[in-house]
């Protein structure tokens, strides 16, 4: 508990509403006010150094203060600091980035539609799915299937797609037309004695039953993260997407790939869809699109959807969608440079090279008394805290064990994120082996701090 706040912390409390924060406790715990960053480290206003083990919010894949990125942004600000793409206007960096996205896309892509955030991109995806079906004369085909524990953003529609209660409670969400299918988390939702293969078969059967109950003629699209991020770093069982994809194909249901977290090398592939065998029709990207050096997102569209957009525009007279900052020149310039860096520095190869060490260190954590399950793919992972390893019994959420352990870790000079009682890891892809080992060393010590706390306070009861 913070007993004496610095002047800048007090000013922060008086000025800001902090997202995804227990607002009633900010004055008690005190905000961490950061001043600068370099490489995989960030520094607070007191000069203390922290390993940023979450790449900010899953996004700073190239770390902080990369000189090439800073130079690219500076040059674009000097050349054309702002313009827009409305009314058939354009500029070179927006075109160049779209071409690069088409080149590296995991499925055939025809055109790119920009926005500013992952939430906006996924919100746009749903508008386009509805627009597409109207263009085809299917006005009733409008429901969207998401999944329990899926995360797709915080706009009214994208938060409705998100399958997490805290994104719905007292926001009057979800809105109609949104359905939530099963979460592909075998550890938590598998039946006793049920193999992963049987679990996948059951989820596929449940999905088919849901579609038949609602009526396939009423369902427009399915949206999925290849790996569920904010739902707890949930890596689907082998064969999951292969089992469910034919169901959507059979019923002419669009498949949307939410690559906001998993895009641009995080899994060791350009896109997480490739890593898990998912072949979506459309793709949302953001975060590592610009290595987080500026806000930018994009929806990547196949030709058949572009054709529908053009035909409906001809009927109405205009395509009535777009954002003031969608395709902002600064974001596009940084996106072009980020992809160039990913390619020339072989970031995918770097992730693949670090992945065995990352996986080994996470696997070791499974031995800790507090850890019930571990998940990992490439350079993203999660460790799930439990009160009882044998029964998988979780801690009471009100105890905030995950948040307390992340607090212990912060005191030891590293930043990770507690998603309930799952601790997520998503370090910058430029992290070295020594830095990665140091991050895990500090996490192990923080878990020991947590075990001492749990034992002392009797939180397992």
UniProtKB/TrEMBL annotation:
Q: Name one Pfam family in it.
A: Aminotran_3
Q: Mind listing the GO biological process terms from this record?
A: biotin biosynthetic process; gamma-aminobutyric acid metabolic process
Source taxon at top rank: Bacteria
Keyword Transferase, does the record have it?
yes
Record GO terms (molecular function): adenosylmethionine-8-amino-7-oxononanoate transaminase activity; pyridoxal phosphate binding
Alphabetical UniProt keywords: Aminotransferase, Pyridoxal phosphate, Transferase
- Is Ribosomal protein found in the keyword set? no
What InterPro entries would the database entry show?
Aminotrans_3, PyrdxlP-dep_Trfase, PyrdxlP-dep_Trfase_major, PyrdxlP-dep_Trfase_small
Q: Which family does it belong to?
A: Belongs to the class-III pyridoxal-phosphate-dependent aminotransferase family.
Name-wise, this protein is Aminotransferase
Annotated source species: Methyloraptor flagellatus
Q: What lineage is on file?
A: Bacteria, Pseudomonadati, Pseudomonadota, Alphaproteobacteria, Hyphomicrobiales
